[in-house]
Amino acid sequence: GENTEPSYFENFRMSTVEIVVVGTGKSSIELIEKTARRPDIKKYDEIWCVYDRDDRLASFNESLRLAEKHGFKVAYSIQAFEYWIYLHFFEHNGSPLERVECKKKINKYLNPFGCSYGDMTGKKIDTKIWFLLHLVDKSSGKTHEELAINRAKKVYDSYDHKNPVKEESSTTVFMLVEELIKFRQIA
Predict the structure, then answer these.
(1) pLDDT tens-place string over residues 123-177
(2) φ, ψ for residue 17, nearest 5 deg
(3) Where do runs of H (alpha helix) occur along the chain?
(4) Are 97 and 83 a contacting pair, CB within 8 Å?
(5) How far is 29 from 52, CA to CA, in rounded Å?
(6) Bridging pattern class, strands 48-52 and 170-171
(7) What distance in Å separates the CA atoms of residue 59 and residue 28, rounded to the nearest whole number?
(8) Roughly how many angstroms between the first and final C-alpha of the chain, as a whole number?
(9) How, if at all, do strands 73-78 and 170-171 pair?
(10) CA distance 187 to 169
(11) CA separation for the pair 90, 69 (Å, rounded)
């Protein structure tokens, strides 16, 4: 992605990990191919490609195979990265959830805090939204990030992964976030 994904991952404060965000806005196949051609690719211990399924149904499963061939890990979202953000605030069963509906519900949560996603600021996760994604939920005692991880895992585990393109709505972003949490600086 060009906006949401880079702005989300740039907010991570890492102590011993270098995060290089390359927002391409290209198709998943092009993203993987472009990443594989990077001259500095060998200096990284792990490579994660983060992208949405969007409407590119025909190439989605192929993109996962190509990433595996190159040794890359994938943090995907079906339909959109907004689904990952949505799971910070709302439980979901994995049934189809359009990105427009995600955005509306995200803003329903954010607006009382004086911020919004995807309007005047574009589709970016600014520091105020980042802060809200990490607040402790009063009813559960967990951070919204922890809730999102648990919710995403629950949905992910409900699928058999034989045909990921059909796993709507789901996300594997939680896998990357769990890896990053291991190295995150405490502010």
Answers:
(1) 888 889 999 999 999 999 999 999 999 999 999 999 999 999 999 899 999 999 9
(2) -125, 135
(3) 4-10, 28-36, 57-70, 82-86, 99-110, 127-133, 144-157, 173-181
(4) yes
(5) 11
(6) unpaired
(7) 8
(8) 27
(9) antiparallel
(10) 33
(11) 35
Residues in the chain: 187
* Distance of alpha carbon 67 from alpha carbon 49, whole angstroms: 8
Bin 49: left if φ > 0, else alpha if -120 < ψ < 50, else beta.
beta
Quick: pLDDT tens for 35-68: 999 899 888 889 999 998 876 788 899 999 999 9
Report the candidate in 144, 141, 118 with the shortest Cα–Cα distance to residue 7: 118
The residue among 84, 92, 49, 42 whose CA lies nearest residue 67 is: 49
